[in-house]
User: What shape does this take?
Amino acid sequence: MGNYLLIFWALVIMIQDFRIRRIPNILSLGGCAMGAGWLMATGHAMTGAGTIQVALGFSLALLLTLPGYLMRNLGAGDVKLLCAIGLLCGLQIVAETFMLAALLAGLIALFYLYRSRFFGSYSGSKPIPFGAALAAAFIVSLVHPNYLGLGQWLG
Assistant: This one.
């Protein structure tokens, strides 16, 4: 049941980020609150990761996203989203999600470049929806855990 809730949450985030290029705080901070609450109530993340793995996942999320935010390449919603994923799932899911999201964001950027080159419809002022890429990658990480084989390295 927990994974279905997380997948639904990620789908809503993906739609919002594509539609309005923002991740509402109710979704990102709500995910943080849900992850922290679940951790306090049960002693583990929604995916079963232990407290240390959750702390490491949250720390890695900050380490990966804060530099991009400080350089104005990522939005605050992207930072909060990956931190929420860290609290909800732990280190391995954060690492796998970020790696796949970087690839997906690159593909989205190539699509925008292609579209603007041939159809002239993209304004460079619109940001790449990295939150949508994070949400899609998160869903893949939930459905196919350890798809990159990081479990042996991070576990």
The chain has one domain: 2-146. The two ends are 24 Å apart (CA to CA). The chain has a mean pLDDT of 90. The chain is about 75% helix and 0% strand.
